[in-house]
Design brief:
Distance between the termini: 35 Å
Helix content: 10-25%
CATH superfamily of one domain: alpha-galactosidase from lactobacil brevis
CATH topology of one domain: Beta-galactosidase, Chain A, domain 5
Low-confidence stretches: 1-25, 583-587
CATH architecture of one domain: Distorted Sandwich
CATH class of one domain: Mainly Beta
Largest sheet: 10 strands, antiparallel
Structural class: alpha+beta
Mean pLDDT: 92
């Protein structure tokens, strides 16, 4: 960890009341969202790339009938059409037509006016009455990026860097920030081959070349690959990305789409790049309510096997204790045939997995459905969230017997070990219009009848094997394309039918995070690492640190022991699940009754602290340390809201750290102003000069470990 060994003298004021930040009631403002961060140089960089790439060089590629598109498109008829223009962006369709075979290839290109960003999606359509030749090796992006700072000159020697994050695999280092060096004439390739887009890597990459770079983001909730190749003495890097495999013919009248691609150009430093990118994501790739990014909730999570009376009793406790929850969350285990359940099941070992596909109420659990529970939750001021896993159905459940044609199968679909050994999982085929209509109508009607406000979608198996097994040799990739396209239609239709609803995208915890899924959903449980109370809180710190570079709105499950502030703050993010359970640090305690003597005052303090902090997670993000998996380090970050003139600093001293003091240079402040800081754990306040905070640092003293400090600050007039 980088240490800034600077001692700072500050003015201390004790016992003075620190006013509540205005952000308590204002999660995100128009001023923040509409602020223009793009510099003139960034605007020029984007414009020059656009001029080059959609005129002389087309930034995607494919092989058609054995010939490269770079050769073919020059001969095909081209037609450019303006689809939409407004102050924020222009949308243009660039179409190429092959008169010989009737194939049309077109790209819908969106160029943003308020950000140095361009995104596009490539489509193919067969307009003829016969099958096309083979289309293969489709690269949704294939473009050269100039890297002038490493072009072989002695004063500029060095390497390009690729900054990215791990995917989610229920590990402590999920989403950890990683930097790879891209040497001359080398290639770095990243793939997600399981069928869940962020299982292996998060599909966001920042190619840094000296004081500038370009962020590449992929929108495809399936398999993908992305490569960076350094060429010509490092002065050019070729970026390619697309589905993992494509080799297919199109039937008469058939059309397909490819992954969405975003290029985001920047100049300056990495903080500027990522904070501009975060605001771009909030503006253009985040679900909205009333025209604003949704407010992420603080949720009380319960197990689906809990009986109706237990839910109603718990909601009564929440109401009587005046616990300020936004959401009452019911997870897996509420469905299936009539059978007894353990009300407080352990999620790894019990029967929730066995009954997927049978979405009837288990009458032992909720004999009357969820309407009474949702009414009680609404009366207590909470939305109701309910878990589904529509893509997986266990063979033998009613829908698999009634409509086996709705499902994809493959020889490896049988569970090989564990308590579910012998269970056969089938995959609901979203590429089948009848199957898509069935599940859309069922879930939509279910939500309406039961008063469900938030639809939680899980996906606990690897999809790609089903897709590839069901492809024909001359249709490789087609099953996946139709499936993913159908999945988007399903999500879009649910949102259209239920305008106030939003989707919680789980997929075994954060394994489906990409540009397209983020358009439609938010990850409210970003990693299954946090599903038991025995995990190390460092995991939450690491997940937060990496993911906040790319995805402002994310949340996690928190099973911290009652009274353990370090554990709660380690998981604090734009949203958090913070349950009323007797979590004493063993796996069996993960979901049990609220015990006698529960520390409600502490719980209320943590909830109030989170709601005070929540608006800042929508703001600018500044890592103040490197991030590691070492328990000997400190880690810290700053969140700043220039529109509110407020922010926060979060610092963690891990369990084996010996240092008692660290200094952190803050960022994004006004050097001519003074800032008042409030310690969240005491009445202590400090007033510190902005220039000193940025040039010398903010001193934090922590004697014990593990321990944390949370400071809120505001700019003084």
């Amino acid at each position: 960890m980088k240490k800034l060994i600077i001692v700072l003298t500050v003015c201390m004021i004790f016992g003075k009341s620190f006013s509540q930040p205005t952000g308590k009631t204002c999660v995100v403002t128009d001023d923040f969202l509409s602020a223009v961060l793009m510099t003139p140089d960034e605007k020029i960089e984007k414009a020059e790339w656009m001029k080059k790439s959609f005129n002389d060089e087309i930034p995607f590629s494919f092989i058609y009938n054995g010939r490269n598109s770079s050769e073919l498109l020059k001969k095909w008829q081209r037609n450019d059409e303006i689809i939409e223009t407004n102050p924020k962006y222009s949308l243009k369709r660039i179409q190429f037509s092959d008169k010989e075979t009737g194939l049309i290839c077109y790209a819908d290109v969106k160029e943003f006016n308020d950000y140095p960003a361009v995104e596009w999606t490539v489509y193919f359509k067969n307009t003829s009455k016969t099958t096309t030749p083979i289309i293969e090796n489709i690269e949704a992006v294939s473009t050269d990026i100039a890297c002038p700072y490493f072009c072989g000159k002695p004063e500029n020697r060095g390497q390009n860097e690729i900054h990215y994050s791990n995917g989610s695999q229920a590990r402590m280092d999920d989403f950890i920030s990683i930097t790879d060096t891209l040497n001359y004439n080398a290639t770095k390739t990243y793939t997600s081959i399981t069928g869940r887009s962020s299982n292996d890597y998060l599909p966001f990459f920042n190619l840094k070349n000296g004081p500038e770079g370009v962020i590449t983001a992929i929108g495809w909730t399936g398999t993908w690959k992305c490569s960076f190749t350094s060429r010509h003495w490092r002065d050019t890097v070729t970026i390619k990305a697309g589905m993992e495999k494509t080799h297919l013919k199109l039937q008469p009248g058939e059309d397909i789409r490819t992954p969405k691609i975003l290029l985001f150009f920047w100049k300056g430093d990495m903080d500027h790049a990522h904070n501009m990118f975060r605001r771009f994501m909030l503006n253009y790739h985040t679900p909205k309510q009333n025209g604003k990014p949704i407010t992420m909730p603080i949720s009380c999570c319960t197990w689906g096997g809990m009986k109706e009376k237990s839910h109603l009793d718990l909601i009564k406790v929440i109401k009587n204790q005046k616990l300020d929850y936004d959401c009452y969350w019911i997870d897996a285990g509420w469905y299936g045939p009539k059978h007894e359940t353990e009300e407080y099941q352990h999620m790894i070992t019990n029967d929730w997995f066995r009954h997927a596909g049978n979405w009837n109420f288990n009458p032992t659990v909720v004999p009357n459905g969820f309407k009474q529970i949702s009414d009680a939750a609404h009366d207590a001021g909470m939305k109701l969230l309910l878990w589904f896993e529509p893509e997986r159905a266990v063979k033998g459940t009613p829908i698999t017997l009634e409509h086996p044609e709705y499902f994809l199968q493959h020889p490896g679909d049988t569970v090989k070990k564990g308590i579910f050994k012998g269970l056969v999982n089938w995959q609901l085929n979203f590429g089948n219009p009848d199957a898509q209509k069935y599940i859309t109508d069922f879930i939509s009607e279910f939500m309406t009848k039961n008063g469900i406000d938030i639809y939680r979608e899980d996906c606990n198996f690897y999809l790609a094997a089903y897709w590839s097994y069901n492809d024909k040799p001359d249709r490789i990739g087609m099953t996946e394309i139709k499936y993913i396209t159908g999945l988007y239609k399903f999500w879009d239709e649910l949102r259209s039918r239920h305008p106030g609803m939003y989707i919680d995208n789980c997929a075994s915890g954060g394994r489906r995070i990409d540009l397209e899924s983020l358009d439609r959903s938010v990850p409210m449980s970003r990693s299954d690492y946090c599903c038991v109370p025995t995990i190390d809180p460092m995991g939450g710190q690491i997940h937060n640190y990496g993911l906040m570079h790319w995805v402002p709105l994310n949340a996690t499950i928190n099973y911290t022991k009652p009274g353990y502030t370090y554990g709660f703050r380690s998981d604090m993010s734009a949203g958090v699940q913070f349950s009323l359970f007797d979590s004493h640090g063993t796996e069996k305690d993960g979901m049990s009754h609220v015990p006698e003597g529960y520390p409600y005052d502490w719980h209320k303090k943590m909830m109030s602290e989170y709601k005070k902090a929540r608006p800042y997670f929508y703001g600018d993000y500044y890592p103040l340390t490197d991030i590691t998996t070492s328990d000997k380090d400190w880690t810290a970050y700053q969140l700043n809201r220039p529109d509110l003139k407020e922010g926060m600093v979060m610092v963690f001293k891990r369990i084996k750290s010996k240092d008692i003091q660290e200094q952190f240079k803050l960022k994004g402040l006004d050097e001519k102003a003074a800032y008042q800081f409030e310690n969240a754990d005491s009445d202590k306040t400090l007033t510190i000069d902005g220039k000193k905070l940025m040039s010398k640092g903010f001193t934090i003293n922590i004697e014990n470990a593990p321990e944390c400090r949370l400071w809120f600050y505001k700019k003084l007039n």
